[in-house]
Design goal:
- The structure is a single chain.
- The longest helix has 17 residues, at 213-229.
- Helix 3 (50-63) packs across helix 5 (95-104).
- The protein is of the alpha+beta class.
- It contains 16 helices and eleven strands.
- The strands form four sheets. The chain has a three-stranded antiparallel β-sheet with strand order 2-4-5.
- Strand 4 (107-114) and strand 5 (117-124) form a beta hairpin.
């Protein structure tokens, strides 16, 4: 990939933000970080474990505001361990470095659009280095590869993960199922409909394990669902599911998510903050039309709105602001065929 394709500006990286602090457990202001669905579900391969996913998500939140800066990031290993220890997670001397090595061998594949061209891109999801002195040193130096950063900062479809709740989950299938369900939590119908075959693939259930429905339900799905439902305040939702038959056998599952009142209040606050001082406000009627377009294409409405606002601001800076924000936004939504998520 040429240098011209690897550059991105602060304006282009300003759309999606974290909430809360990764260092402070606060139910009223939970630490959340947006993670692209390509990284959560579909196109990620490697030796990573559930524990590694927790570390990656935590470090992403801690470094989010500085993504794109040269030289990477640096955190004290003792500080990272303190958070994981307080939440019942791993906190030994060597685990962070071992986890970092597995993460550096994990890759994600996705589409990237530059102007009129669409590129297939593959990259690792992490890099890290530690000094050799003092049992792997006192600090972890780490970063997220440059081709991955625009996908993280401007995703069309993402899961807003609750960092501390994720760390507290103990089962490997519970960790991944929670990440998957968060990707569907903001759908209007609150549902995730998936075939059993795809769910096995997303959860990375070994092909030779739990081959029949009863075993899969008993050892994989029910324990994961029960663990999520054990702390609805932390998760921000509760989940129920229904198996659907195709012929004599169960073929797919429908997960139904119900948000907690606390989560609804947090999201309402975020929406108000996003609109504060905004020059390009959208009417309720236009919002409804745009939502229908986003849902039909499987996109996240709020990510699409933020992309359009960034585009509108750039046009305004050139002296060509949209004359009708509603019409401009709806037209923008209809034109975005080339931005379909991988």
């Amino acid at each position: 990939m040429s240098d011209s394709l690897s550059l991105f500006s602060e304006t282009e990286l300003s759309g999606i933000q974290t909430t809360g602090s990764p260092w402070l457990l606060d139910v009223a202001d939970p630490a959340t970080v947006p993670v692209p669905l390509q990284v959560v579900i579909t196109n990620i391969e490697g030796p990573f474990t559930a524990r590694d996913r927790k570390l990656w998500t935590f470090l992403l939140h801690a470094a989010f505001d500085e993504l794109g800066q040269r030289g990477g990031h640096s955190l004290k290993i003792s500080d990272i361990n303190a958070v994981f220890r307080s939440l019942g997670g791993e906190h030994s001397t060597e685990w962070i470095w071992n986890s970092a090595k597995r993460l550096s061998k994990t890759t994600v594949e996705f589409e990237t659009t530059f102007g009129e061209e669409v590129y297939d891109t593959i990259t690792s999801i992490f890099w890290a280095t530690v000094p050799r002195k003092g049992r792997r040193g006192n600090e972890l130096h780490f970063g997220f590869p440059e081709p991955l950063i625009p996908l993280i900062k401007e995703p069309l479809r993402f899961a807003r993960l609750r960092v501390h709740f994720l760390i507290q989950l103990s089962g490997k299938y519970a960790v991944t199922l929670y990440e998957i369900l968060e990707g569907f939590a903001n759908r209007r119908d609150g549902q995730c409909r998936v075939t059993i075959a795809d769910l096995r693939r997303w959860l990375k259930v070994p092909e030779e394990a739990y081959g029949n429905w009863k075993d899969l339900r008993k050892w994989v799905i029910d324990p994961a669902v029960n663990q999520i439902n054990a702390d609805p305040l932390g998760a921000g939702f509760t989940v129920e599911y229904e198996p659907i038959r195709k012929g004599r056998n169960y073929h797919e599952l429908v997960f139904k998510l119900t948000k907690t009142d606390g989560r609804k209040m947090v999201e309402s606050r975020l929406k108000r903050a996003a609109h504060k001082g905004e020059r390009f406000n959208i009417s309720a009627k236009a919002e409804e039309t745009a939502r229908e377009i986003a849902i039909s294409k499987g996109w996240d409405y709020y990510a699409l709105l933020e992309r359009w606002r960034s585009h509108a601001h750039k046009q305004a800076e050139k002296g060509n602001p949209p004359k009708n924000a509603d019409a401009a936004f709806i037209g923008y939504c209809k034109r975005q065929k080339e931005l379909r998520a991988a």
